[in-house]
Amino acid sequence: MAEHVDIVEVGPRDGFQGIGPFIPTERKIDFLRRLYATGLRRIEIGSIVSPAALPQLADTPDLLAACADLPGIVPQILVPTEKHGLKALQAGSDFLAFVLSVSESHNRNNVRRAPMDSAAEYGRLCAAMPEGADMRLNIATAFDCPFDGRVAEDDVIALLDVLVPMRPGAEVCLCDTTGRAAPDHVMSLFRRAMARYPQVTRWALHAHDTYGLGLANVHAAWLCGIRVFDASFAGLGGCPFAPGATGNVATEDLVWMFDRMGVHSGIDLGALVPVACDGAVIPGGLSGGRVRAALTAKG
């Protein structure tokens, strides 16, 4: 396998955040350790947000502390505001993922402020980042908004024009928040953005599989040169602030596809499938994906 892909496991954040019954912290840590044992190294372990807004993620600092026992793990923490980003840094995080939406409707529904207000907070948070800390910039509703429909590429570019100069070394992730993007749209936006911002050397895609196009969109981004993809074990997930959106593409589906393509992910599919099977039966969870069922079918 000459080529390599980086899969970012976001199940412990995106997969768990919409589940109502609280998953015991000990069980979350067990899932984290089992995911690590499959070869996954970059894992979005949670989010620093208001416990009232997302009570499922209130124990994110406990998961961060558990990472100390996992050599080589890169625990990523999602933050939606400057205040929560500073709290994550104070908790010991050194890899933040700041999220804001292109769509004003979605950004206001999510964090009660306009996108440009969030952009200003991102800039201040970047300035406060200590040396050695890393930043990912998640551009939500880059393709489609649950309230306004398809998002114009010009609107995405206009927002990136403001954000990219604030931290050119940040990884930029375009997020298909609703799962309504199609492969041609994915290719068009990535090609345009990558050509406009040559100073950005790290790009990523966060794809949802609401309409069954998750893998197709990942492959379209791959053809554009993208090598970092978010995925959630068992296809768990769905944005609480995007009505109707289901989970991310399943991690096991991505690993299967890239294995068949001869692309190295460093992830042991045989070890991952049992973890995904257990994830799929978490009470209150909404699972997805196809590979898990295909590999465990009887007869």
UniProtKB/TrEMBL annotation:
Keywords: Lyase, Metal-binding. CDD domains: DRE_TIM_HMGL (cd07938). The keyword Protease does not apply. Gene3D superfamilies: Aldolase class I. The keyword Lyase applies. It comes from the Bacteria. One of its GO terms (molecular function) is lyase activity. Residues 5-273 form the Pyruvate carboxyltransferase domain. It holds the Pfam family HMGL-like. InterPro entries: Aldolase_TIM, HMGL, PYR_CT. PANTHER family: HYDROXYMETHYLGLUTARYL-COA LYASE. Belongs to the HMG-CoA lyase family. This is Hydroxymethylglutaryl-CoA lyase. It comes from Ruixingdingia sedimenti.
